[in-house]
Specification:
The protein is mainly α. Helix content is 69%, strand content 0%. Helix 2 crosses helix 3. The longest helix has 29 residues. It is globular and about 45 Å long. The termini are close together.
Length: 173
């Protein structure tokens, strides 16, 4: 565990106070766009890795669109949760506690990202039938990720400002 932050996160410590002597707002109260963008990029990294791996596996096995997409979405969730899980385990949480934090922190973000990304791919003419060697496949996928990032960032900002989502993860850093 990062010992320099232990006192800050212990529940037996008094709340930090502002100069006026009144309790200060929690660190997440004024969530910045930068914090939200970093949380979204963190989520996008796991989602992109899992989704691309799922597409490659499904295509290599000559699966149809539905099973390939199901695998890609499942792996997007797995890899996104894994990135958070590893970070909070390194911070000193047990595996079970870290898993709970990852599920609470990332579920909404991943779900929004995957819904938007896969909707973009499904609505792009020819993208569902494009092969891994086609520019259309990669263009639709990258375009879907870009739109998903733009839509998910405000969602993450809203959640972080309310102490939800990645704010839960930051309590363990």
């Amino acid at each position: 565990m990062n010992h320099s932050h232990d006192a800050f996160h212990r529940s037996d410590q008094p709340p930090h106070t502002a100069r006026s002597g009144t309790p200060a707002q929690p660190a997440h109260a004024g969530a910045s766009w930068g914090t939200a963008a970093k949380a979204t990029a963190h989520c996008l990294t796991g989602c992109a890795f899992g989704e691309i791996l799922g597409m490659v596996i499904g295509t290599a096995l000559r699966w149809g669109n539905i099973p390939t997409m199901a695998l890609a979405i499942t792996l997007a969730f797995v890899f996104s949760y894994a990135t958070t899980l590893l970070a909070v385990v390194r911070a000193g949480l047990t595996f079970t506690a870290a898993l709970k934090v990852a599920l609470v922190a990332d579920s909404v973000s991943i779900a929004v990202m995957e819904l938007v990304d896969n909707t973009i791919i499904a609505l792009t003419p020819g993208a569902m039938d494009a092969h891994l060697t086609d520019g259309l496949f990669w263009g639709a996928l990258m375009g879907g990720f870009a739109v998903a990032f733009l839509i998910t960032t405000p969602v993450n900002k809203w959640m972080i400002s309310r102490g939800k989502g990645h704010a839960v993860v930051h309590a363990h850093h």
